[in-house]
Design a protein that fits this description.
The protein is of the alpha+beta class. The protein has one domain (4-185). It is 40% helix and 18% strand. The chain contains seven helices and nine strands; from the N terminus they run E-E-E-E-E-E-H-H-H-H-E-H-E-H-H-E. The chain has helices at residues 58-61, 70-82, 87-100, 105-118, 126-132, 151-164, 168-178; strands at 4-7, 12-14, 24-26, 30-34, 39-42, 47-48, 121-123, 143-148, 180-183. It has a three-stranded antiparallel β-sheet with strand order 1-4-5, with helices on one face. Strands 2-3-6 form a three-stranded antiparallel β-sheet. Helix 6 (151-164) runs antiparallel to helix 7 (168-178). It is globular and about 40 Å long. It starts with a strand and ends in a 10-residue tail after the last strand. This is DUF1353 domain-containing protein. InterPro entries: Phage_CGC-2007_Cje0229.
């Protein structure tokens, strides 16, 4: 596919623990290489669990470890956890990886919109971080952002994607108009007074 390629196989071991019991550990390194040559390496030992794909959307798109976007979800999960690249780039990579995995353009765009609006988001942008007053917290993993879009607005966007096939930039602009964003700092990272 023109949107990139995967290198290696997704070989995982289910980790046993209480609760949802969804964590899996990669036994072999795995990678996605974008059409632009950017490498998205996921090391052996990384833990993935599908959490970067909002569970609400599993009924629309299927669960993250089944079907044509399962490899894309592994890479997306890892980079949403380590946050070494901007959220926007990680979500764009997810779109390209979905396409490389065989997901149709329209479905991949809808999935991209879902992870952009409802999935993990963060920023390393110094101006944004400073405006929230969290300068000292943005060293390596940036500042987590809680994002929310009304479900009616999202479903309207999804329908528009299916009818008009907008570009990713047009989807981003539409999401930006309807997205509410607030910083979400884990308590252990809040400076003590």
């Amino acid at each position: 596919m023109a949107d990139g390629r995967f290198e290696g196989r997704v070989v995982v071991e289910w980790l046993e623990h209480g609760g949802a019991d969804r964590n899996m550990q990669l036994r072999e390194a795995f990678a996605f290489v974008g059409e632009d040559g950017a490498r998205w390496n996921v090391p052996a030992g990384a833990i993935v669990n599908g959490a970067s794909i909002p569970q609400t959307f599993w009924t629309l798109f299927g669960p993250p470890f089944v079907g044509d976007y399962r490899r894309a979800s592994v890479v997306h999960d890892y980079f949403c956890e380590v946050r070494t690249r901007p959220a926007h780039e990680v979500h764009r990579m997810f779109y390209d990886a979905c396409r490389a995995g065989g997901v149709s353009y329209v479905r991949a765009k809808s999935m991209y919109a879902a992870v952009t609006a409802f999935g993990p988001n963060w920023t390393h942008d110094e101006a944004v971080v400073s405006s929230f007053g969290f300068d000292a917290l943005a060293k390596s993993r940036g500042v987590a952002l809680e994002t929310h879009m009304a479900m009616d607005d999202f479903m309207e966007l999804k329908n528009d994607i299916e009818m008009t096939d907008p570009s990713l930039d047009e989807i981003d602009a539409r999401i930006a108009r309807g997205l509410q964003v607030t910083p979400a700092i884990p308590l252990e990272r809040v400076p003590q007074m």
